[in-house]
Every structure is written in C-alpha cells, then in structure tokens.
Specification:
The chain is about 35% helix and about 25% strand. It is of the alpha+beta class and about 240 residues long. The chain has a three-stranded mixed beta sheet with strand order 1-2-9, with helices on both faces. It is globular.
Length: about 240
C-alpha cells in the first residue's frame, strides 16, 4: 500500500484561511521501515512508500505523518485523514460531477479526454482523470499532480456551494466515506472541522520545486531544499 496523493493542510484560524502544500509522492526522504515507530530504521526512499510500513492502517498513516514531518524540518502535524481510491468517485458524485478542462495527452485514459475539452466527470471517470499515468505519454507524477490540483480546486468550489444549500451535506458525505477513511479524529470532530473549512477562505495549493533523477525503472524526485524552506516559512510563520 502506497500513498498516491499527499497534501498537508495549513489552517490559519486567526484569519479564517487555509492553504494546502502538495508534496510529490516521489520525493526522496528518510522513511522508517521498521514495524514500530519506537524502533526506527530510517532509509531514504520515495515518500509514497512510507505508507507501506506498519502493522495496520493507523500505523501506516502515522509513519507517513512522521516522514512528512521530517521532510518539513520536523514541523509538528496535528492530525491525519487517509482516503482510499474508492473515495474519488464518491467525492466527485457527491457534487454532481466535477467539470474539468482536459490537458493534452489524455486520450488513452478515456475517449472523452480530448485536449481542451470541457468534461463533467462521472463515476470512474474521476479516478481516471486524477490517477491515470502509465498509459499516458507523459507518465510523470508531476502531470498527475497538475490534474489533481484542478480536480480538488473545482470540487471544493462545488462542495462549498452544496454545504451552503444543505446543512447535512458534510455529515452525509462523511457517512458515505466512512468505510474508506482512516483518521485519528473522532467522527464529530472531523465533521465539525470540515464544516468549518467550508466557511474559511481557500488560499490555494502550493507545490515544491525539485528535479527528477531516473534510477533504473524508478523516478526519484529531489526537492529543492531552499525552495522548500522558503515555502515552509511562508506557510507556517509570521513576521514578529
């Protein structure tokens, strides 16, 4: 089991805003591959693999949190929420389908994915849009991340509108996702938290700069540490 999409939400409750840091799953970072975090065995590998180590879903999430925190200069991370791939269809269909603009090179993933087309995704199309990689000419994770950002941004706009129209929208969505969700938050706390976020201003999605290196059949992404440090300072700190 690997982590396909890794995003860190940074909440500013003083200003009622939030931003998201999207991390490349191929980023090379120290990962604990021991069965227990109490017995660390740190090995540098792709960030996505952190979710492969642990005796259960909770332990795998905690190991991913540990790897992300270490990557971000040991910043504390308060909570985690993990969703399985089945959630993509549920999220998409909960808002009546997300409408996206198709980038070039997607036709092999779906006949409807012609360059420049405006498509309202339905059912399994949503997963094909955000996840397709190996069948494409551009099979990089950075291309997937671009599509993921478009999908999440458009979904958020529709979800906020639904939440304003239907006070039960967030709770109903949580119920639909419950079988595919792993978190360290209680159900009521998670629902309240998500409801609160729908009233906050979305500051957008930030990504890290870096370069790929090809090692055999694998791609290793090396983050520009100066860029990462600047973004961490911007996201987490204020001038005194």
């Amino acid at each position: 089991t690997q982590a396909d999409v890794i995003m860190l939400f940074v909440i500013d409750r003083d200003n009622n805003t939030y931003r998201c840091l999207q991390l490349n799953r191929d980023s090379m970072v120290p990962v604990n591959r021991a069965e227990s975090s109490l017995n660390e065995e740190l090995v540098t590998m792709q960030l996505a693999l952190a979710h492969s180590f642990g005796t259960n879903d909770q332990a795998r999430c905690e190991n991913t949190v540990e790897a992300v925190s270490g990557m971000l200069f040991d910043l504390p991370i308060d909570h985690y929420v993990s969703l399985r791939m089945e959630s993509i269809k549920i999220l998409n269909d909960s808002v009546g389908g997300v409408t996206v603009t198709i980038p070039a090179g997607m036709e092999t993933a779906d006949p409807a994915f012609t360059e420049g087309a405006t498509v309202t995704l339905h059912g399994d199309q949503a997963e094909r849009f955000v996840r397709s990689r190996m069948s494409l000419d551009d099979d990089s994770n950075t291309f997937r991340m671009e599509r993921q950002r478009q999908f999440i941004t458009k979904w958020r706009e529709l979800a906020v509108a639904r939440a304003e129209q239907d006070s039960n929208f967030v709770m109903d969505l949580n119920m639909q996702l419950s079988d595919y969700l792993v978190t360290d938050m209680f159900a009521n706390s998670l629902s309240d938290f998500v409801s609160q976020l729908t009233t906050f201003t979305d500051g957008g999605i930030v990504t890290t700069e870096g370069e790929y290196e090809h090692v055999g059949a694998f791609r290793e992404y090396y983050v520009d540490m100066d860029d990462l440090e600047a973004k961490v300072i911007d996201l987490f700190y204020e001038e005194a």
